[in-house]
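User: Can you predict the 3D structure for this chain?
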Amino acid sequence: MNIPFTQKDYNESTIKSLLLDKYTADYDENLKLLRKELEQGKEYNYIEYYTYLDNIRTHLDKYHYLDELMFNYEASYELKNEERKDVKNEDNATYIETLKSLLSTYDPLNITSEQVQILKDYLICHKGITLYNNMITYEFKEAITHKSNDRVTKKTLKNKLNANIKHYYAIQFISKIINNWYINTMKGNVIINIDLINMLVDDHNNILVNNRQNDDVSKESDIQNSSSLNPDTVVKSNRKEKKEKYIWYLNNNVGYANKINEEDMITKEKWNDMSLSELRKVIKISYEIDGKIYCWAHDATALYRSWKKIYKKFKTDKNFNNPHSNLEFSPEDKMKILITLGKRDFRYDKDFKFDRSPKYRYWFDSSDILRSEQVDTSAESNNPTNKRYDTDLIISEIEIDGIIYWEVKIIFYINKGIIIYKSVPGSFKLVRINIKADIIIDIEKLFNQLYLLHESDKILGKMIPFKIHPAFDTYNFKNIDEEEDYKIFYDMLFTIK
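Assistant: Here is the predicted structure, written as structure tokens:
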């Protein structure tokens, strides 16, 4: 697919692997043979090739608002707002239409060097870089929010990404072309958001995380949930077979210097006594001592809890050691624990030492000035909130065109909500509503209700993709200027749970 943009010697090896005994010493002849091979297999062996080629040619047709997407980062999530300002101009429109035209006829095996250069000129430029960076941001935000009325389950995100996977591939393909062109001169990615599209394409099962701050795992509820999904005898039989196979996998320690342990070193619970859902959280970790390689099984949940306690106590995990060898767990071992459980890497959370975000109480003083104070929550330590610690509610007074508004926004911190995030942007605004100050009634009650909804995960929900509360979904990225709209918003906050 990217033959026109890669080196000839690299292409030779790819073409040779496809043509096999038809391969010749003539590069141009090989391209003709490969094109013929692809055409003959259009309905069979190479159907996927043509599917992805079609998506590359047409992926820009999805957007009917490319001017906003290209030049306004904030607009990348406000594109569907009917009140958005018109930012179109002739230069942008011409650029977009030309780029669409160039991509619509793209054929990696039937393109001249002049055509390749023109396409490069339109992709590898400031407008192209801005367009694809913002396009990725938009798609990522769309992926982690849920607009449907359907219930969000563990499969919702995966199904949603699978439905859009070919579109993501097209964006990833173009982004890689742009980055590869600049990589030697810029010594880094100019499409700085490329890790986000890579996540959507490749790593969503291990990287996008749905758990909340309260990481306690109820084994009883796990067992109940797994056994009550379907009482049918066939299903129960299948679960029994799967459990037997998993235990066989755990016990199979061929090639290691030890026999596998029959129970967890920390919990002392035997593998045979575990449910299938619990067994799926058991991992095998190996290490080498004196030339011999040992491998032991561990309950990943128990390791994770121990790890967090050690890190919180010592502010480091150097004392987080394998209980069988007393050797420090390797970075790969720690990542295996996180991925198995679908947990965030809490070590990179600057506020990890806090159990939750601070609570605030709002009131008016004698001069009718809105005040706030942090509420002491130490007495509630035995009843922790369920609020995700990768989101924050921020309420602030702002001025727009000389009018005072109260801005209500919720920030999603990708560097807290994603396991592997070191090179991705820091945060996204998922919710932002501006309420005209002089139409607000019961402002104390309003602000405290906003906080309570946020603390109980009622605005975004507890899982990714976030299902935004109807009040916020109705007015998201809009200004509330009329009393009637404010009353609708206010009533929805108190009546819809």
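Residues 73-88, 211-234, 351-358, 376-384 have pLDDT under 50 and may be disordered. The two ends are 49 Å apart (CA to CA).
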